[in-house]
Amino acid sequence: MTAAPHSEDDNPLRGPPELLGEFGEFGGRYVAETLMPAVEELAREWPKAWADYAFVDEYRAILRDYVGRPTPLTEARRLPAAIGGGRIFLKREDLNHTGAHKINNCIGQVLLARRLGKTRIIAETGAGQHGVATATACAYFGMPCTVYMGAEDVSRQALNVVRMRLLGAEVRPVTSGSATLKDAINAALRDWVASVADTHYVIGSVMGPDPYPLMVRELQRVIGDEARAQILDRIGRLPDAAVACVGGGSNAMGLFAAFVPDKEVRLFGVEATGEGLQGRHAATMAKGRIGVFHGMRSLVLQTDDGQLLEAHSISAGLDYPGIGPEHAHLHATGRARYLGISDREALAATELLARTEGIIPALETAHAIAALPQVIAELGPEAVVIVNVSGRGDKDMHTVMTHLDPATLALIAEAERERKAARAAHHGATGSHPGEEALIVDGHELRADGKEGA
Ligand SMILES: *Cc1c(COP(=O)(O)O)cnc(C)c1O
């Protein structure tokens, strides 16, 4: 693994302005007076930790032995023929423990919290993926963990609530406002105001008050550092482009970070246009305006009078009304381009990657895959492109299922009818209650009372 702070050149204490958390007109620290000391402590202590060999070595060792890094760079074999050519290299963050990139950040932040003498972790979560990654890191380190989650999301994402609780975290449903992510963020910030002496707040993307956007990017840059070394090793040159989906922007920043200084490498972020820009969407770059949200100044989806708008994407992880300040800066300066992909296009790309490469991507990731034809059309069929496979698709199967094509749905319905008929015949023979609901798993009938049937 190559990583940031082991040479004089990339020591963040002496780096260029963006390494110090200044992203043009974006970023900053917009927090309550009571939180300022905690944020200042982080801004002071984070660069010291990141320049400390012992800290970085421990972080890397955990990524290697627990998370499973380095992740492979897989060259797509059959995908290029379906998207107009190119040599496409897939950076396999889906193969990390917990199935996505978020764990890289959570391990680093909980390690930092321990270094700072904090004894408790809080986090907010939208769909629950960041909550699960944080709960995982807390279980690893034996730290108590409280996760704030909108009550609406608690019921929509029940499986992640089960995961978090299984991992030992306390999940606190938030019922104020629209009972979704922004309300969970507010609740987490309120907790932090009261608990700042012993509590660290783990933010899940390159968002929030300085130094979070900088810190989370550095904790994710392992993606780009590995990918850069792997592509040089494989083909002896840098790629023509790096592509990643953008929710808050952490998997994209992690990939981009290694290539920002290489002007010949084009950077493409892909945001969710949901049902279309006229309908519900999460297209912060296309439709957002400058505002202050979540402790930072960045582009935000808002009404004319500054009310935060609710975002929509079929992928829970892109369903966020803001974007990290460094992305806003890369956008404003033209260093990175941002493309939009709809729910429908993302679903189609999920199927495309599954069928051509045998990899079922997360719906977030599918947005990046869906943008590849446009990237290849622009750069030509000889282009070498690295695309970040930010996560695996298992978590999205219930969503995919409800959007499957009619033939697949008919097949499932037919099997269900046959199963019910068989069960009715069986119950008729044994005399048990025919109305009793049971689930057949691997040929075993599981009943609500926990007993296994025949
Ligand atoms: C959360 C998530 C994202 C979006 O978050 P970023 O901070 O923009 O990376 C993308 N992909 C997957 C698989 C996720 O879980």
Automatic annotation (TrEMBL):
Residues 442-454 have a biased composition (Basic and acidic residues). It is an enzyme of class 4 (lyase). The modification N6-(pyridoxal phosphate)lysine is found at residue 102. Pathway: Amino-acid biosynthesis; L-tryptophan biosynthesis; L-tryptophan from chorismate: step 5/5. Residues 68-391 form the Tryptophan synthase beta chain-like PALP domain. Its EC number is 4.2.1.20. InterPro entries: Trp_synth_b_CS (IPR006653), Trp_synth_beta (IPR006654), Trp_synth_beta/beta-like (IPR023026), TrpB-like_PALP (IPR001926), TrpB-like_PALP_sf (IPR036052). Residues 420-454 are annotated as: Disordered. Gene3D superfamilies: 3.40.50.1100. It catalyses: (1S,2R)-1-C-(indol-3-yl)glycerol 3-phosphate + L-serine = D-glyceraldehyde 3-phosphate + L-tryptophan + H2O. HAMAP family: Trp_synth_beta (MF_00133). NCBIfam families: trpB. This is Tryptophan synthase beta chain. The lineage of its organism: Bacteria, Pseudomonadati, Myxococcota, Polyangia, Nannocystales.
